[in-house]
Amino acid sequence: MTLQFKSYINGEWLGGNGVADENPSDLATPVGEYALADVAQTQAAIDAANGARAAWGMSNPQQRFDALDFVGSEILARKEELGRLLALEEGKTLGESIGEAARAGQIFKFFAAEALRIPGEKLASTRPGVDIELTREPVGTVGIIAPWNFPLAIPAWKIAPALAYGNTVVFKPAETVPACAWAIAEIISRAGLPAGAFNLVIGAGRVVGQMLAEHPGIDALSFTGSVPTGNRVLQTATRRGAKVQLEMGGKNPLVVLADADLDQAVECAVNGAYFSTGQRCTASSRLIVEKSVYDEFVARTIKRLSGLKIGNPLEAGVHIGPVASSAQLDTDLSYIRIGREEGAELLFGGDMVECATKGHFLAPTLFAAKPDHRVSREEIFGPVAAVMPADDYEHALALANDTEFGLCAGICTTSLKYASHFKRHAQVGMVMVNLPTAGVDAHVPFGGRKGSSYGPREQGRYAVEFYTTVKTAYTLP
């Protein structure tokens, strides 16, 4: 029996035209099919969210805690099941997928607790006898547009704070991962929220996403995705005065200095660049290596890549699963072709890998490239990285900062001097020392600078800045 993934609007599951949900590891066996929402259903979801604003926005903190704690607890209890679904639909290895499911559960439980400690202040006035109170209130109705690469964790770190601070939600997932979105929504549907407080609308970006950006009933919009789409969302939503938060990717450098532990540096590079099939906005797609250890680092990296197993993410021993979709595979292959045409040296990979089933299996790919090559400058979002030499630390830092992005940067070194300098001078929102660039804890702020991010940070206690508005109240008793 074919699994059906429907939209959830105003407390009801609604159908529509069925579209196949592709399994990137086995194209002959879809995960199921999803119901494609239209304009009318999107409008109904926005109306429902606005209709529930008073009930949920004025709910007490204990009610919000109970609902979000219920969601987090069930996700954690079912992390293996949800992880398997994620692996089938998106292609992460089973271990990574279960880990992501656990992270989603932890995020809901973190924000359950945050609902009990929404901050406020009491200040003294310059006028005798007057009290001043600063309180935080919900923004209102929040539109959430999430990507396909972390289909459980990213929706969690948007939905959970939105609900914790009393907002109502209209959630649009990527069409590539409707099953994961449905799984989250199904759990939320049993958490005791009033009808309309949370809505799932599975549909095309040009329909659902565009409506969320344009509609006056959406007070705030949180988006994670590509730079071109993010810029369109920003222009459309801010034109009508909506609050906007964007996460749009990166071209993240990992600097390897001559004094680094090379075995550790190789592990940081391979993990950051290729695990999760390189489909992470925090991936280490630019490897910048001091000249004196460049050749040895490259040789060790190639040896490490040659030992990786590519295949079905549900199989034991697989390190890298498939590219998530045919569209993304086309992008990856086009950049591999561009790298060759521009003169970058293909050091490893670049070809499709044959497995037991037909899927989007691409070998991890490493180019020796120049800083001006497109594979060194543009986000590819696949298992493709560029390595380049640097004369010394100062040159490596300059190369690391020579990008329009500013999400994350890493450095491998045993020097406290260089590590400290890099943490201060890397033009990014997040810095990793002797760690992969990909991997941020659930309770800390996530976000970048320059072209990577716009608006307040996501995750952790910093999420309150986006999902609430501050009210100043004066009282003369």
Automatic annotation (TrEMBL):
Q: Which residues form the Aldehyde dehydrogenase domain?
A: 20-472
Active site positions? 247
Spell out the InterPro entries in the cross-references.
Ald_DH/histidinol_DH (IPR016161), Ald_DH_C (IPR016163), Ald_DH_CS_CYS (IPR016160), Ald_DH_CS_GLU (IPR029510), Ald_DH_N (IPR016162), Aldehyde_DH_dom (IPR015590)
UniProt cross-references to PROSITE patterns, sorted A to Z: ALDEHYDE_DEHYDR_CYS, ALDEHYDE_DEHYDR_GLU
The organism's place on the tree of life at top rank: Bacteria
Q: Which Pfam families match?
A: Aldedh
| One example GO MF annotation | oxidoreductase activity, acting on the aldehyde or oxo group of donors, NAD or NADP as acceptor
Protein family: Belongs to the aldehyde dehydrogenase family.
Show the PANTHER family listed in the entry: ALDEHYDE DEHYDROGENASE-RELATED
Q: Protein name, please?
A: Aldehyde dehydrogenase family protein
